[in-house]
């Protein structure tokens, strides 16, 4: 059974604040742990009014301290914005504080506009693509056999689980060559899903990190008690997609605001196209949609992104999805149905 995990952006909703977004993310990671999700990742975005998650390592330290079992990680650290040595020290520190619970997902995009990218003062401003070299340098700092100078502090051996993230074949092929697990961003870039996973699996080379390909697929999910309720809760994400495409995006709108918005036919077509890959509906619809995605991709893991206005609705969506997903596991012959279903983090 494919494992489920959670991707959160510390969403700043209309009428809220970044401080409240962080508090809600903390409550959400605790709920995800209670519900049995495998891992909880936060992203790196900059200069984005609806996203408070700009410093993953800092936020992850807080989330790890607020939980005890669930893996926490970055989905991802945008490596072009950072010196690999600094990232190595940050995540080695997290691993030393929370052994065996830390993931380092690495992305190639800056996660922001060109003006903010310039303020971050990294190589992408100059048009240089140093990502492959930076990844190799970074994972080298975690090698327990490392003797070369410089050596990060904490030293080699404090290693998070490293993933490459991508929305094209570029990072898929790099993950394959380096023998790293690969996470595809189907939730916002579905077009190249099949091609990227085929490239990753066909080019994969076993490494000290991984013996065989390991695939995670990001998917947008809104689950509610009814189809109509789910569509209503998904309205803000739909409207935000439009506003972002026209440079008008602010905090995530309220569902009532989204329901009142008068879409033109062209706007409606844009939004429906962007949301075509999202899984939205009641528990049965969501279970079927996720199962179809698993059949298509043979993913080892799905990581769910739920962009709705209220934290309570995000938590309810996670709970309904977890219950629906577990209920799809058929008990083995002769087993007691009341005791044969395992928690999500062991369904691998």
Outline:
By secondary structure, the protein is an alpha/beta fold.
Description:
This protein has 348 residues and is α/β, with parallel strands linked by helices. It has one domain: TIM Barrel (Alpha-Beta Barrel), CATH 3.20.20.30. Helices cover 43% and strands 14% of the residues. The chain contains twelve helices and nine strands. The protein has helices spanning 18-35, 56-65, 84-97, 114-120, 131-141, 169-178, 193-203, 227-245, 255-260, 265-274, 283-297, 311-327; strands at residues 3-8, 39-42, 71-78, 102-107, 161-166, 182-184, 215-223, 279-281, 301-305. It has an eight-stranded parallel barrel with strand order 1-2-3-4-5-6-7-9, surrounded by eight helices. Strand 1 (3-8), helix 1 (18-35) and strand 2 form a beta-alpha-beta unit. Helix 6 (169-178) packs parallel to helix 7 and helix 8 crosses helix 10. The longest helix has 19 residues, at 227-245. The radius of gyration is 20 Å and the shape is globular. The N and C termini lie close together (5 Å). The model is unreliable at 330-348 (pLDDT under 50).
The helix tally amounts to: 12
Question: What's the arrangement of strands in the largest beta sheet?
Answer: 1-2-3-4-5-6-7-9
Query: Could you state the order of secondary-structure elements as H and E?
Result: EHEHEHEHHEHEHEHHHEHEH
**Largest sheet properties:** 8 strands, parallel, barrel
The CATH class is identified as Alpha Beta
Overall CATH architecture: Alpha-Beta Barrel
